Amino acid sequence: MYIKDLHLKNFRNYREQNIKFKQGINLLIGSNGQGKTNIIEAINYLLTGKSYRIKQEDELILWEKNSFYLKAIFNVVDRDINLESYYEPRKKVMKINQLSCKKLSDYVGTVNAVFFSPDDLDIIKKGPQERRRFLDHIISQLRPSHIPLLNSYLRIIRQKNILLKKEKNYNLLKSQIEVWNEQLISLGSKIIKNRWEFTDQLNEYCCPIFNQIFSPESNMELTYMTTGKTLEEALDIFPDYISRRMNQEIERKAVLVGPHRDDLQIIFNNKSAKLFASQGQQRALVLCLKLAEMEIILVDKGEYPILLLDDVLSELDIYRRQYLMNYIRSSQKQTIITMTDLEEELITDDTTTFEVYQGTIRRKE
Ligand SMILES: Nc1ncnc2c1ncn2[C@@H]1O[C@H](COP(=O)(O)OP(=O)(O)O)[C@@H](O)[C@H]1O
Ligand SMILES: [Mg+2]
Questions:
Q1: Residue 353's CB: how many other CB atoms inside 10 A?
Q2: Which domain, by its residues, includes 71?
Q3: Are residue 44 and residue 192 in the same domain, yes or no?
Q4: In the predicted model, is pLDDT for residue 351 greater than 90?
Q5: C or N terminus of the chain, fewer CB within 10 Å?
């Protein structure tokens, strides 16, 4: 799949801009603060209905304007797909081929992209929330029903947390918790199952990729950390586990058990990557996670997703960069790469270069 044409109106620092992308490699070159990441953000917004950088969409509107509009034409399995999104405060419209979508889950996953930026190091460095988000993002792209599932689950967690903080009468509290727990078990089990299965899929690809790019002797392994050593066991003991911790939850006034507490453990050479891998190794591990994500999408959709690389090329050493570029060129993968200085070695027949300067983009001949 690939993006052909992108139109932005009053989005971030773009007043009105049209970009015609090509298949192959598209380089966006410009010094800092010119609007390269804003383009990647616009594409991501069109694909996911959200920005990965901010919570409030108002920030995406060009200063002193009241709304923004994005439109792009994509090619998916030899057909054109039109995605549009319009936003003004308190009004958001998302359309696929001119038809409005009521729910995010109707929209997400129509076109897929894998996005990689230096901030993705957080997947390894930061807490479990980052890793759950990484997993949930992949799952949502391929199984959009995961989105309402997560929303419902998290809403019940919030309600149960309020109950645990407010209700003083033990018997009343206990009976109400039991009602919430029933729903948490039903929704939570589905979330655990989805995450476990996708972890297995990622696991299949990431270690071979790591061996190929970095070192044949090293190993990389992912484990979904929940209650239980196998998926069957986890789902089997979850209901019992949740009810056994009830008194503890009442004591601590917080929901202690369930997939909102789970983690994706990333193991490198039999040790925790977070604790023992070097900065460079961690960067390599994240790259492999992203490339594994590409492969999973290929298997599911029959086409590679669009690859968006924001400022990451300069961070990789020459050897790894070479590998990444070979990987990109080895089969049809449209790639959009941002960088501050044009590096001549990247230019081949399949490369299109754009210059980004103060919110305008010009194709470089
Ligand atoms: N809502 C907005 N309206 C106008 N300009 C914005 C808005 N949000 C960010 N900017 C500007 O966009 C620029 C940053 O763009 P970005 O794409 O992150 O740059 P880079 O080329 O370094 O990736 C900054 O100059 C910032 O002031
Ligand atoms: Mg940037």
A1: 17
A2: 1-112+305-365
A3: no
A4: yes
A5: C
